[in-house]
Description:
Distance between the termini: 34 Å
Order of helices and strands: HEHEHEEHEE
Helix content: 25-40%
Radius of gyration: 16 Å
CATH topology: Glutaredoxin
CATH architecture: 3-Layer(aba) Sandwich
Structural class: alpha+beta
Number of domains: 1
Amino acid sequence: MSESEDTTKVIVEVRLDFSEESDEALRRLFQVAEELLDRKGIWVEIIPEHVWFNDPLEAESMDLPQIYVNGKLRFIGRVPSISELKSAIMERVGMPPVKNEETNVSATRLYDGGMSDAVLAF
């Protein structure tokens, strides 16, 4: 059996702003991903998505960071602990790796007044 057949894959998407909380969430995700690969052979693909806002009220209403594990929203508006991240990832092991359905939008810019401009990738 090859190494790629032994490795289980989980996709973790994280929506971030430029706060310390988002930075800490991303650092913990990489720490957990490295540990799970080394100890259990679970490949965690991390897809960071930075969200930019022109209006501070929009940023507050978004409740970032948001962490999706195999397409399922698991954490919103806070930095999960390392054990919470491991548990959330392990729950989704064995399920087909999928991205969040909204990931078809590769770039989005929000304008004042709620109008947005998006670039779609097919």
